[in-house]
From TrEMBL:
SUPFAM superfamilies: Riboflavin synthase domain-like
PANTHER family: FERRIC REDUCTASE, NADPH-DEPENDENT (PTHR30157), NADPH-DEPENDENT FERRIC-CHELATE REDUCTASE (PTHR30157:SF0)
InterPro entries the UniProt entry points to: FAD-bd_FR_type, FNR_nucleotide-bd, Riboflavin_synthase-like_b-brl, SIP_FAD-bd, SIP_fam, SIP_rossman_dom
Domain FAD-binding FR-type: 1-132
Annotated protein name in UniProt: Siderophore-interacting protein
Top-level taxonomic group: Bacteria
Matches recorded under CDD domains: siderophore_interacting
Any GO MF annotation of the entry: oxidoreductase activity
Amino acid sequence: MSVEARPSRRGVRRRLLDLVFARGRVREVRRAEGRGRWIGIQIGDVPGLDWTPGQQVRVHVADITATRTWVSGAVRHALRTYSVWDYDASAEVLELYVLDHEGDGPGARWARALRPGQAVVFGKPEGGFILRPAAYHLLVGEETASVPFGAMLRAAREPVHGVIEVEGPEDRLPLPRAESLTWRYRGEAPAASSTSLVEAVRGLELPDEPGFAYVAGEARTVRDVRAHLVDERG
């Protein structure tokens, strides 16, 4: 007598996830200067995985196929969004830079516990924070913004101007076209109340012709920079 094997609920959930998300394994984890980690993910051949510099991925920092994740309520915090530093399509390696924020949040725990060989599930690259056709590009932001900025700077063919604010010199990423960038250090001041970023943008000498600005950071900072660019520079 033959018995038809029925797939487990976990197996069904996993197959459904594979339709939407990509899988890989940690290739390496390296501590960076300051508060970050470089994370290389070997992803293999993932159909339809296209990345445009500046885009991000949503990483599963908890196993959403596990019953305990749903029972404990951890599924609400199971996804974290990280900008992609680089994607080597020929080697099939996706590289992330993750800030080690203070505290014990789900994302921080995930990054600290990563070891080579561990499985990683993530969404395909998404987001519209990418280069647009323009005579020049102006990049303005803080620590987390410098990750997509690195990718965008490598891809840009037009002139670039930029101001990046970080806590201290050790938080500077090795961004290309460094001669086009101005760095500002806020020390122990909270990013939300810092005024040095907009002041540095105000001091930039920009071309007379219109360019395209990419601004990322705390809501107040973004508002002030935008007001300067629109109201004071037209």
